[in-house]
Amino acid sequence: MPVDDSVTLRNTVAYVVDEAKTAVTDGPVELHFVDIASTRSVDPDAPEELAEASELLERVELWVEEDLGEDPPAGISVETAVLGADRYLFSPGDYADAILEYAADVGVDRIVLDPEYSPGGATPMLRPLQLELTRGDVDVAEAPVERRTETTVLTRAASLPKYVTVFGASYLFYMLLSAWKPLDFLTGFLTATLAAVLLAPVAFSQQPSVVRVGKQLARMLLFVPYLLKEIAVANLQIAYVVLHPSLPIDPEIVELRAAVWGDAPVTTLANSITLTPGTLTVSVSDRAFDIHSLTAGSREDLFGGSLERAVRFVFYGREAAAIASPRERGDGGEGQDG
Amino acid sequence: MTPVEWGIVALALLGAFFGGVAAMGIFRLPDVYTRAHAASKSDTLGAVLTVGAAALALQSGISTAKAVFLLVFMFLTNPTAAHAIARAAQDQGIEPWTLDDEEGET
Amino acid sequence: MVELSTALLAIAAAFVVFALVALYRVFVGPTIHDRVIAVNVMGTNTVIAIALVAAAFDQSVFLDVALVYALLNFLLSIAFSKFNVEHGGVL
């Protein structure tokens, strides 16, 4: 598979690994990932490009490992290579030549193309390349992957509780803003019905349950005073820092692997971190939080984990609150200088 | 003015103080991340206190309900917006300001 | 003695001044994100000012304006961040 940085590269790799997993039952499989250099290695900007290429290939190897999972099936091996550094490549034909040559060398019998593959920069070259590649006697296929932004599971099966919840919330909101005339009840009903029909399939990640939400709300009530206290401290600290003549700050971005799971808890924790003293959530991917901290003291508090524990308590109950703090888990905060 | 009204004014003044802190923070702090701190925390508390005061000052029940809803809405969205902007900045590779930068300048 | 409505209007004026301070950051930048944060703060201050004016004149209609303004203000920040990042994925 020829690789180049693209939005669908990750999914194409996943597809290739998937195919390899099914094919490995018939015998050992070798996966080759090649990056094609458009400049010759003697050109002035070649070292930079080659470094980028090997970095990309390393990334691909990591993805493959990730997709193979905890115990990879025996018989799958991964090779990477940079091609075409010995000559100039102009047309899709040149690229195809380089790929086919390599394929013949190592005995590849199937080439998978990333649907967004465009090594030549802005010019689209997938179709001509595909055409040129069929000159060789190998099987050429475009990976059946969609752009990542379109493949995320957005709609889930709707159910009656979901419709009722969305309808109720919309109707309440509408009536809150209305003037309580008879006509408003009718228009509100129509609007809420429309909202429920359109949004109920996308609004929830799990079935709404009165009992669970009720329990979470009750624990949330305990959480709120704690959060308010933290917010008050945070604001006094910001006020002190901002109004102090010499601006005593020592900002730094640290990474935290939080022990919370699921959309709502992660969102709550991220927003709570943002509202509490000296910390601001910059980005979240799964459970890894990138957190910008304003002062050294705020970093200490963060890895003490009291906020994280409180969020766990709200969403999962008392037992989960006992999970060790980030520092005890050995996550003392990379990126912290001394 | 009645004691309740004095309380409302005091609450609004406290909110104005934090609104001022947010504005000063936006003005003085050195980079986008630190400014996001000021925007998310101080401005949110300033908004909550002041809109809370407005909710108390409004007499009719439905207006107070609206003001409270506005308050809750801002409480939820302000940190989220700051987070989104900070994340966009990080995605574009904007480096956070550190103490070293200042030492480098002087 | 001052009236409650006068005091609330004065505080609303203070928030307008704070919004003008934030406007300085919109002009100076330096990055586009600084400007968006500053615009966000200006929007928040505007919402607060509208809410205070609503309280001062006891006009609940102004609160609807404030609500819609708050919604738009949030939408602006999110939409901007989203489209400023390649291929989306901010939220």
TrEMBL record, chain A:
Its main location: membrane. Keywords: Cell membrane, Membrane, Transmembrane, Transmembrane helix. The chain crosses the membrane at residues 163-180, 186-205. It is a multi-pass membrane protein. InterPro entries: Cation_antiport_E, Rossmann-like_a/b/a_fold. GO terms for molecular function: monoatomic cation transmembrane transporter activity. GO terms for cellular component: plasma membrane. It is found in: Cell membrane. PANTHER family: NA(+)/H(+) ANTIPORTER SUBUNIT E1, NA(+)_H(+) ANTIPORTER SUBUNIT E1. NCBIfam families: PRK12652.1. This is Cation:proton antiporter. It comes from Haloarcula pellucida.
Automatic annotation (TrEMBL), chain B:
It comes from Haloarcula pellucida. Pfam families: PhaG_MnhG_YufB. The keyword RNA-binding does not apply. NCBIfam families: CPA3_mnhG_phaG (TIGR01300), PRK12674.1-2 (NF009314). The chain crosses the membrane at residues 6-27, 48-76. This is Na+/H+ antiporter subunit G. GO terms for molecular function: sodium:proton antiporter activity. InterPro entries: PhaG_MnhG_YufB (IPR005133). Coiled coil: none annotated. Keywords: Membrane, Transmembrane, Transmembrane helix.
TrEMBL record, chain C:
Signal peptide: none annotated. It is found in: Cell membrane. This is Cation:proton antiporter. It is a multi-pass membrane protein. Its main location: membrane. GO terms for cellular component: plasma membrane. Pfam families: MrpF_PhaF. It comes from Haloarcula pellucida. It comes from the Archaea. Keywords: Cell membrane, Membrane, Transmembrane, Transmembrane helix, Transport. InterPro entries: MrpF/PhaF-like. One of its GO terms (molecular function) is sodium:proton antiporter activity. The chain crosses the membrane at residues 6-24, 36-55, 61-80.
